[in-house]
UniProtKB/TrEMBL annotation:
InterPro entries, alphabetized: ClpP/crotonase-like_dom_sf, Enoyl-CoA_hydra/iso, Enoyl-CoA_hydra_C
GO MF term set: catalytic activity
Recorded family membership: Belongs to the enoyl-CoA hydratase/isomerase family.
SUPFAM superfamilies hit by this protein: ClpP/crotonase (SSF52096)
Region (Disordered): 1-26
Any one Pfam family match given in the protein's UniProt record, by short name: ECH_1
Start-end of Low complexity biased regions: 1-23
Protein name as annotated: Enoyl-CoA hydratase
CDD domains with a match to the protein in the record: crotonase-like (cd06558)
Amino acid sequence: MDTTVADSPDSGSGSADPPADGSVTASRDGALLRLTLIRPDRRNALSPPMTEALIGALTEAASDNALRAIHIQGFGDDFCAGSDWVATNSGDQRPRTGDLVRRIPHAAHRVIELLHTVQLPVVSSVRGWAVGLGCNLALAADFTVAATDAVFWEPFLARGFSPDSGASWLLPRLVGLARAKRMLLLGEQVSGASAQDWGLIHQAVEPAEVNTATEELLERLVGGPTVAIGLTKQGLHYAQHSTLPQAMTQELFNLELSCRTADFKEGLAAFTQRRPPGFTGR
């Protein structure tokens, strides 16, 4: 099974034959990095090597000065059905006690942490099922565009174990404690349309419009002031666990950095000249 990150054409629409089944492919589209989860026979559930490949791609992207946005999608009809527990526990020997505590921080949890901290805007486009880790991948993205009939589901308790991959942190902040309990304690499935109404995702559109809506959003983000976007993302996350004075102090440091960029000078010039800015991400 091919599980390395490799160059690949965009394949989120399901219109082309997939590359190697069980892979995470990366394609550069100018300043945009597209990551595609490819395992359609398992609804793009992530095997351990696929998770490692995703971590590698996001880690590399975090320090790539040529990138200005990241797009994550699933191949074919679904986004991601979570971690593949069958593949993880398919060995003949029972894992040692504490295996999950040792392993998951460097696997599923690391993926969510990277999406949360990378100073690039991340967009996910969701069709079909977004389940467990797959649901949390979509929620950890900065913007998620979903089909109205997509399904967001946190089935941890239905499988007899408690949530992981940031579900207990992400959900209350996005939709409030009451709705978080509905999704986590009752296992309630949420459609793309309801997810937009709840504030769980950025936008829900008809299935045929997912690509168009996603590309419009990506074009806007890729053309933005990349450094300022990254610092604003960092500031928003920091403010979720800080006091108002602490948040404003962090804003000052971020402001000092963003005002030293070429995009800041371009923004001022464009304002003075009454024209749209031409940001370069520098």
